[in-house]
Design goal:
mainly alpha
Length: 156
Amino acid sequence: MKYPDVFGAFDNACRRLHIRLLTAQQKIAGSPQQQSLMRISAVLTFGGLAFSGSAHAAPSAGLASLVNTFKDQVASVKTDLGVIFAGLGFGGAGYGGINWIKKGREGEHSQVKASQIFIPILAGAALGSMGFVMLTAGETAGIAKSTHGGVPGSGG
């Protein structure tokens, strides 16, 4: 029994689609209206793919699930950006420190200016502190379950 060449057919279909897209691109290359429509459709497609996870809600939970999913994703982005800012801050302060060491080694004839030392250190301190605040904002501010207004010993 001979099996059909599925991969060859898929390869052919992809090749034909690519050729059609290239010819369509050459046809509309001179039209600014078509180019703007293509950009808008690309942005909408990318936006739909990028944010489709946050727009998904379980049918039984509805809007509440959508909001809960969005909240979880925002918390994740906050944590990731905090780590990135902290890393950039450490790198900026390190770059300023390296320039400081170079200036100390070369003495009066150094090409390193003072602004190449203190600006990266200050920028690194600012980015590092923003990263620290983003990472610890919910923990140290006491954002947790509150017992304010509850009767002691009632469990809530």
